[in-house]
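Our platform keeps sequence and structure together, in a single record for each protein. Such a record has a labelled line for the sequence and another for the backbone structure tokens. This encoding replaces a full spatial description with a residue-level series of whole-number codes. Below, we set out a record of this kind in full and without editing:
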Amino acid sequence: MQRGDRTVISISAVLAAVVVAAVGFSVVVLDRSPSSAAIESNDSDSSRLVATWGPSLCMSDPSNSGCRSGHVGEMGRTFVLHGLWPQPFSDQYCDVPKDVADRAAKLKGPDMPLVDLSDDVRAGLQSNLSDASVMAPHEWYAHGTCSGVAPDKYFGDALTLIDQARKILDPLFNQATKKGLTLSTVRDQFDAQFGQGTGDRVALTCRNVTGEGSVAYEVQLSLPPVNALGIDGTALSLGDLLLKGPPIAPTCRHGRVP
């Protein structure tokens, strides 16, 4: 091998190393993506608190009963509780009769058996769900039956946590510019509020709306299993619970905020 050939090979090796380093930097720093090993824990025994941005809900699905009734609009520019989902997501309709599961899947609220709830929890759901008459029974039969806790605790914990999540998410979404909102911005805000690493437990989902493009739709927060929330009798702390949940992969990195 000639000296000139060795020089070319050395330069090529250096350039390749620089490219690899740059790609690594962009993935870890710019995209804020958890490592592949961390993402694999996404299917572990955990749960997701899922919150929907009200204006995005009615923009993407104007036929939604809560949008048609005006209830979501009356809630203002805020996040609506969607649910608290045991993971993996395939864990649904646990020990639920097929006819009830079929009705719950089709969001036929009046046709589903009533869920036994205290007056306080029922009132909380009325003011936090898009349409409690439909969503409360649907969420219980689809997800709550797999949680390992009673309906009052299942929904009560979800109400407590959505209230804490709104304090971060509502200002972010209300202050979003016409350029929209990035996942990195959302994750950075959680890190700033609750500590480094909590942002890696946050995912943004988007929906394509005709004439609007990709719209920021929901935020999912990764938490411990539902039956492990507040088992020591202490008040639920969203920040503490996020650090105990597994990191999750990003789904949508940028979306417009209506």
In short: Confidence is low (pLDDT under 50) at residues 2-43.
